[in-house]
Amino acid sequence: MRRMRMTVAAIAAAGLAAATAACAGDEGDVDGEGDGGGVINMQIGEVRSLIPGGSGESEGYRIIKNVYDGLVYYDIETGEPENLVAEEITSPDNQTWTIKIKDGLTFHNGEPVNADAFIRSWDRTAYAPNALPLNYFFGTFEGYAEMNPDPLPEDQWADPEVPEYPEVATTHLSGVTAVDDLTIEVKLTAPFIGFPTMLGYEAFYPVAEECLADLEACEATPIGNGPFMFEEPYDPQAGGTAVVWEDYAGDKPKIDAVEWHVYLEGDDCWADFLTGDIDICSPSAADYQSAMSDTELAERVIQQPDPSILMLAFPLYDEKFQDVNVRRAISMAIDREGVLNVVGPERFTPLDEWVPESILGGGTNSCGEYCTYDPEAAQELLAQAGGWPEGEPLKIWVNDAADNLDIFRAIGDSISESLGITYELVPMEWTEFLTARENHQLDGPFRSGWGPDYNLNENYLEPIYGGGASVNDQGWENEAYNAKIAEAGAAATLDEAVALYAEAEAILAEDMPSVPVFGENFNFFYTERLDNVEVHPIYAGPRGDCELRTVTITE
Amino acid sequence: MSELTAPVPTTERQASLWSDAFRTMRRRPDVIIATLVLLLVFAMAAFPRLFTDKDPTQCLGREARLRPDTWFTGDHPLGTDAFGCDFAATLVHGTRPTIALALSVIVASVVIGLVLGIYAGYYGGWLDSVISRALDVFVVIPMLMGAILILSLFRGRVSTESLVETIAAPAIALTLFGWMEFCRYTRAATLETKNLDYVIAAKCLGASDRRIMFKHILPNAIVPVTAVVPTTIGGIIVTESALAVLGIGVQPPATSWGVLLSDGTEWAGGGYVYLFAWPLGLLILTVFAFATFGDALRDALDPKLR
Questions:
Q1: What is the pLDDT of residues A473-484, one digit of tens each?
Q2: Which chain B residue lies closest to A413 (C-alpha atoms)?
Q3: A516-549: b (≥16 Cβ within 10 Å) or e
Q4: Which ipTM was obtained for this model?
Q5: Is it true that domain B42-301 has CATH number 3.40.50.2000?
Q6: All structural domains of chain B with their residue ranges
Q7: Is A286 at the interface with chain B, CB within 8 A?
């Protein structure tokens, strides 16, 4: 299953020593000779972009996090950020941050990874006319407003899905300055204690000068600073191979290369996994049953809680969903246990909160009775809200990948059974789906998944529901919530901040712009040729993924 | 005195090809069984409520994959499917699209085949050349492959709101690659018949071409075609299933036997064989019935075999 992802990756590196630039790898790398080498075959969906700031979804990020190194990398056990490209990140007041970069690092093409490399990437993403999906990550930076005026009226856009802006003269974030070649100073508009933990995310990765000179070429053959590099262009429809960068300064991966195979629209990797053509795959409900009854296969499974969550979000810009009682009714109409029985009980756990328990500040059960199955109460709430329009089906919008359609059919069946209304599933292609929900073009509840970027409850609140009604996918805005978020950001200690964010979650729960449905579990099966397979709770992509930086091939 | 009497119409039966064939067939036990099976299937398609009082769209997640341990009794006589819908209801309601698709394809194919075949055979000349070459082109493309090509165009654009919308795309694709056999038979029969004395007599009496074709030649030409029809229906049902398994035939959430079979195969490996066995059994039984019926009809209609 795919979902929206925001995560940060950077390469663990003890002593990133000076690296000489070398662009071309050797074809021989891919043959898998030598001990412990080899090519790992991974499944992937359609990626939106391979340049930092342009993806903002799980699939593109899965490649970007291996081709680029960010400032910090999260510890697989604790989720704490550890410096990777950064030497030191400090702030006296949580508002002005000083980032020191390690000396001697370069991109695949030999360009230095210095303060400018980060600043040019951040400027590109924060510049409104570029219309990049991760633009909002810079909303707390000083100077963001100058680069992001209100867009032109919608009828003046050439493409109705891409907003256009009046001429913006400012092309540089005034809050970001290079103190010297390896030091960046960042001024935020308000204190934010979680700032360093954000920095490992894709939005904050560096970009090479050569990349900006020819974006199209860079989109196909990214110029990164991470352990893997592309020698041949990557094709979003067919996939591609990234080899290990010979001159990588950190801990080099134990494998020679990774080949990504693309699965589109409902195609699923399981059949190819069984024949050994894909190394890691997560089965659908039907396949899961037969896989677990195969004793040999059942030994090669990784099952652990996944802090990712699955929600049914409402388009509050549609008048049918403006009454909170309609939203509560739909939530109470979902028999979460029953849906689990359909899609495989081990794959999910019912969820009644917006921040899962495994995340710092989560486990508040903030949704409470409204996330408990109660068809009678649901009908009553719906009646109070004036009922559902006669003869109109409830449209549920889903991206068609893996068994999303099965999961949402079971959810739809349950709503339909409890409330006595008909429903219709509208499957969409991933990138189209993302665009449609970002542009507020849906007229029914839609699938919304979230995986953590960092270990803090704020990450499950602000990126999804913040930014105001015109920005977030739900079109939701609440002043009390905004005030609480601001208060939490300015808190003196992390503990205080966490508690205040939890209060913001409670305000969110009152309004219910989305319905928490499930917390997820990883159920990743891997082939017998792999060893040391680690699934990173923050970095792992859906449908089958592992840490490419540590996995080994044993054949 | 000799009386001249007008010949009294005998009460003896008038031997006609069709009534003879009917008599021959009703004596064969295999035909009786096949007919019963077909009646059952058609009844399921026409009146699903006779067989189940459950709504196939009412699905309770908590009751998903209940095995049919109670055998034909209880709440779920055939258990429930992967989504907790009553499986007996799903199976019965899935019959209508299957049968409606098969029948619409066969009717359309026969009509197209008959008309083109008669025109080609009767007029000959350039019309015959055009139709025969077109036929050659379509004949070399296997039905399944042709249908896959056509249906790929419809992929993702098919609505499943009404029965007509559900089956329209597969019906068009299957008809497009299903009419050739009927055309060939009709053309051959027309060529044979058009020079017979009674046709020439009709022509001399000034009958129009259309009258000769459809009043005089068609009744003869239709005989060889009729014998092929039941077998072809069986073939269409199987092809529909194949398309559904490939994911391009009838599209879920609409059901047909093919869709059920396709869903059932996923679960058979996990130990829910009944989800796969029931649609498969029904499919085999129906195809067998059509084949038996067609075989008997051919024997009965062919005077040489009598």
A1: 999 999 999 999
A2: B59
A3: bbbbbbbbbbbbeebeebebbbbbbbbbbbbbbb
A4: 0.72
A5: no
A6: 42-301
A7: yes
